[in-house]
Write a structure and sequence with these properties.
381 residues, alpha+beta, Butyryl-Coa Dehydrogenase, subunit A, domain 1, Butyryl-CoA Dehydrogenase, subunit A, domain 2, Butyryl-CoA Dehydrogenase, subunit A, domain 3, 3 domains, 4-stranded mixed beta sheet, 4-stranded antiparallel beta sheet, 14% strand
Length: 381
């Protein structure tokens, strides 16, 4: 494993940094937190204009796969929104791997131009992360599929052009084998989007599918092969696409506040800052390992689970440490007078628990590591 970046990737990283710095403006940040829509369309289009999104799409062949990690690592470290664009690029990579010609022709240029987003219809109200137990049904009716059901936590559904939807197509097969993935335009009749505002300031959505009719051209991959398609997506989402370095901007905000307030002189404060810096570095190295596996032609499923588990729990620990360190000032929110680190400590304290849920919950990732890496017996049915 070689962590040294090639000259081409270093040049790519510098271009990404320049564009992110120009578009991650205070006004863009304010709008995101006011609306709950964590997306920066101007940044997406600027990255696309220089071909930087196209180079990052897995399997497209436009660039080194390591650039996938570099793109979202730089966006996330700058504190710019990463999830909306990250999901779009991830699904574009899935379509590149298993999509039909029409899906590739329509979706990939729309994503690489920075104009289109995609949302994920996986979790359900009564299922959570146990996707094999989902109940959304897709029933064959002539040459169409009729879809009925509901999905939860469909982030960016209110702005996405497509949804990648996992539905049960054969109830007689084992739970993992009777599922099919669909790629459906969000303007298809029968789809309803209701907002759900989270404790992390972010807007997600509940989505409802009432007799939604689609053709076979909306099937992504093979009928009853949806679990394999989802596995390809998760292998990139966990550990490569981002979500593993949110502790970096938190550390930068807190360290700057500690210097301004004089708290940096306290040994306990310096110790906590140092420990978080170490955890951030470990998370970065684990992410690079996942990216290296992907660049070598593998799917970093298990390694991605390890990366995601460590990074999200370290981030939650850091936000708790810093809020305790700041005391009452750490309870004040963004733009409130006297807020520690301008309110970022309080924001991260609310945001960090959410990161232990999306991309596979901590419990699911622990089970994955326990069974597949440690060889422990299956502890659930």
């Amino acid at each position: 494993m070689d962590f040294e970046l090639s000259p081409e990737v270093v040049a790519y990283r510098e271009r990404v940094r320049r564009i992110v710095a120009a578009h991650n403006t205070p006004e863009a940040i304010r709008v995101q937190h006011e609306t709950g829509t964590f997306n920066n369309p101007a940044l997406n289009r600027a990255l696309a204009a220089e071909g930087l999104i196209e180079r990052a799409v897995p399997g497209l062949g436009a660039g080194d796969p390591i650039e996938l990690w570099v793109l979202f690592n730089e966006i996330e470290k700058a504190g710019s929104p990463v999830d909306a664009l990250g999901v779009a690029v991830m699904i574009a990579g899935v379509v590149q791997h298993v999509g039909n010609d029409r899906q590739k022709a329509e979706l990939i240029p729309a994503v690489t131009s920075g104009e289109a987003l995609i949302c994920m219809g996986y979790s359900e109200p009564d299922v959570g992360s146990d996707l094999s137990a989902l109940t959304t049904r897709a029933v064959r009716d002539g040459d169409e599929w009729v879809i009925n059901g509901a999905k939860m936590w469909t982030t960016m559904a209110h702005e996405a052009r497509w949804v990648i939807l996992l539905a049960r197509t054969d109830p007689d097969l084992p739970r993992h084998k009777g599922l099919t993935m669909f790629l459906i335009p969000m303007d298809t009749p029968g789809i309803r989007v209701d907002p759900v505002h989270t404790m992390a300031t972010e807007r997600t959505n509940a989505t409802f599918y009432d007799d939604v009719r689609v053709g076979d051209d909306c099937v992504l991959g093979e009928v009853n092969g949806g679990w394999r398609v989802m596995s390809v997506a998760l292998s990139f989402e966990r550990g490569v696409m981002g979500g593993t370095n949110p502790g970096v901007p938190l550390l930068e905000h807190t360290a700057a506040w500690a210097r301004r307030s004089g708290r940096l002189a306290e040994p306990a404060v310096r110790e906590k800052l140092a420990r978080v810096a170490i955890d951030n570095h470990v998370a970065a190295l684990l992410t690079q390992r996942s990216a290296w596996i992907a660049a070598s032609g593998g799917l970093p499923g298990l390694e991605g689970s390890m990366t995601k588990l460590f990074a999200s729990e370290s981030y939650q620990k850091a936000s708790r440490w810093f809020q305790e360190m700041a005391g009452a000032e750490g309870l004040l929110q963004l733009e409130q007078p006297g807020a520690a680190a301008d309110g970022w400590i309080e924001y991260d304290a609310r945001h960090s628990p959410v990161t232990t849920i999306y991309g596979g919950t901590t419990e699911i990732n622990k089970n994955n590591i326990a069974e597949r890496h440690l060889g422990l017996p299956r502890a659930r049915r």
